[in-house]
């Protein structure tokens, strides 16, 4: 099942398998120098970079870093405000006004498991009632992870490591997408009715979602790209599964957009790409797309 938000995290306890692979070299097809691409996990810790073979050499060998977005841009006051606004309901709507009594009961059960209190608590209601259902689902996923890994430092994420290293070494840092594009992909283009439906799917399948999170995190820290692909492709075979349009907006269309940019980027400079691991895998994943375009893509050992 491809969830609308394709990222959460896990415990550093899994042994790395013999087929472990997150980092790949891109060569051939007229490139004079190699480029590299790594699959990331948005809530993984930056210290995990020490466990990835060949990573430092790949960063040293390349001349710029490309991420999904430039992370420093996201931290500006203007963009922080944009992000906050994208997560809030408009026109005086409230979350509780969108949910009937039964739906509020389901949500309250999950909030109690996650936060220890629910919307009957005035302070909790004040904090959450302005959120869109999609934004609340993101917050529930984040809190679920933080309960497992309270030492996670949001100021030092795995994704940010590569851009920070580039800046320290005087290399360019660029992004495939703007923050506006990402906010529209993640929070726009989806009706409130569909957001409520997905929030209820999260509540109705809470134990499954928790299990999927743990398995995804374990697969990432095991560098098990095959398991990441299998988990990403899981289905519940009901309305909880992403529609084709949702998959196109969140995953496949973005992959195609990146693949259209990468040839010129790599011709200009050998580049280190860092994007979510779920974008690498599958028939329409970035790795397969690069191979179809004539590049040689090999795992770095």
Main structural class: alpha/beta
Judging from the principal axes of the Cα atoms, what is the shape? elongated
Strand order of the largest sheet: 4-3-5-2-1-6
Give the SSE string.
EEHEHHHHHHHEHHHHHEHE
- Count the strands? 6
Report the sheet-strand fraction: 5-15%
- The proportion of residues forming helix, as a percent range, comes to 40-55%
Query: Could you tell me the mean pLDDT?
Result: 89
Give a short account of the largest sheet.
Answer: 6 strands, mixed
Which residues sit in consecutive blocks of at least 5 with pLDDT less than 50? 1-18
Query: Which radius of gyration do the C-alpha atoms yield?
Result: 20 Å
Distance between the termini: 30 Å
| Count of alpha/pi helices | 14
Describe this structure in words.
This protein has about 300 residues and is α/β, with parallel strands linked by helices. Mean pLDDT is about 90; it is low at about 1-20. β1 (about 25) and β2 form a beta hairpin. The chain has a six-stranded mixed sheet with strand order 4-3-5-2-1-6, sandwiched between helices. The chain has helices at about 55-60, 70-75, 75-85, 95-100, 100-115, 120-130, 135-150, 160-170, 180-185, 190-205, 205-220, 225-230, 245-270, 285-290; strands at about 25, 35-40, 65, 170-175, 270-275, 295-300.
């Amino acid at each position: 099942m491809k969830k609308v938000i394709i990222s959460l995290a896990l415990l550093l306890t899994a042994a790395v398998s013999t087929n472990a692979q997150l980092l790949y070299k891109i060569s051939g097809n007229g490139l004079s120098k190699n480029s590299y691409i790594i699959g990331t996990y948005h809530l993984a810790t930056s210290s995990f970079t020490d466990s990835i073979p060949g990573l430092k050499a790949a960063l040293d060998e390349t001349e710029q870093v490309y991420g999904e977005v430039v992370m420093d841009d996201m931290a500006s006051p203007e963009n922080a405000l944009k992000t906050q606004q994208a997560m809030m309901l408009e026109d005086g709507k409230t979350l509780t006004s969108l949910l009937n009594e039964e739906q509020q009961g389901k949500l309250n059960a999950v909030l109690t498991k996650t936060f220890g209190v629910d919307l009957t608590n005035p302070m909790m209601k004040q904090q959450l009632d302005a959120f869109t259902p999609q934004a609340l689902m993101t917050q529930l996923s984040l809190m679920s992870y933080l309960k497992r890994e309270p030492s996670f430092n949001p100021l030092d994420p795995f994704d940010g490591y590569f851009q920070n290293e580039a800046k320290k070494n005087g290399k360019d840092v660029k992004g495939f997408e703007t923050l506006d594009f990402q906010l529209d992909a993640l929070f726009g283009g989806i009706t409130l009715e569909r957001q409520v439906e997905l929030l209820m799917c999260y509540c109705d399948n809470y134990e499954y979602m928790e299990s999927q999170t743990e398995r995804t995190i374990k697969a990432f820290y095991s560098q098990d790209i095959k398991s990441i692909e299998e988990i990403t492709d899981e289905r519940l075979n009901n309305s909880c599964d992403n529609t084709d349009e949702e998959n196109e907006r969140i995953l496949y269309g973005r992959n195609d957009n990146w693949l259209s940019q990468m040839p010129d980027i790599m011709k200009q400079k050998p580049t280190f790409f860092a994007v979510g691991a779920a974008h690498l895998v599958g028939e329409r994943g970035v790795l397969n797309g690069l191979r179809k375009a004539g590049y040689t893509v090999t795992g770095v050992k």
